[in-house]
Amino acid sequence: MSRNAAPPLLEAKGLSFYRQDECIFGPLDFCLRAGDLRLIEGDNGSGKTTLMRILTGLLRHDEGELRWRGELMTGPRRDGELLFLGHQLGLKHELTARENLAVAVGLHGLRPGREIAATLADIGLRGYEDELVRSLSAGQKKRVALARLMVIPGTLWLLDEPYANLDRAGIDMVNQILAQHTGAGGAALVTGHGAVSFLGDSAARIRMHD
Ligand SMILES: Nc1ncnc2c1ncn2[C@@H]1O[C@H](COP(=O)(O)OP(=O)(O)OP(=O)(O)O)[C@@H](O)[C@H]1O
């Protein structure tokens, strides 16, 4: 079967969202296949996070259609194919970096070819593996959350502002991680303001407003 014969992983057609009759965004049309990376661009308040929440199924869109592997999406997906990293990182502050990853792996399984200690080292946390997350810096916490994403299986990554709080090396690292993930057949949707220049032209853009 050719690559394009399978339905896309995610497809949005005429997707719109309103709050009290005010259109927050839309209509939006986009489609993601294995290997795709898209950058969601828009000013503060343009609805990027709202769109992410809709894609995870946490919020319901008002108009249009959303499909996952060709099937209409009607609520949160719980099969582990779709992983969301939001502004709130969802880390357990009273556990160490290593323990946070171990909990995630215990719940969701280990991504083939990954290993917790090596992933923490790769992401720049060598020597911090056994520190409590609450004692880590904002950028280090973000790295733990990204490492967690890397060690568990998942097809589509929804990353809301993954570059926030990261230094230049951290930003390059996110781009590397994204390239690895999409190169291995995953897909990613990324929001950001600063990311625009960092991702260059490799990522197609979804604009919240013309
Ligand atoms: N829980 C909420 N209740 C009411 N209005 C909300 C709520 N969350 C967001 N909004 C409004 O919806 C609009 C879109 O917000 P959203 O957080 O999606 O924007 P954003 O593009 O992610 O912004 P930023 O770049 O600042 O993170 C804003 O006008 C915001 O005030």
UniProtKB/TrEMBL annotation:
It comes from the Bacteria. GO terms for molecular function: ATP binding; ATP hydrolysis activity; transmembrane transporter activity. Signal peptide: none annotated. It comes from Frateuria aurantia (strain ATCC 33424 / DSM 6220 / KCTC 2777 / LMG 1558 / NBRC 3245 / NCIMB 13370) (Acetobacter aurantius). SUPFAM superfamilies: P-loop containing nucleoside triphosphate hydrolases. This is Heme ABC exporter, ATP-binding protein CcmA. The keyword Transport applies. The lineage of its organism: Bacteria, Pseudomonadati, Pseudomonadota, Gammaproteobacteria, Lysobacterales. Residues 10-210 form the ABC transporter domain.
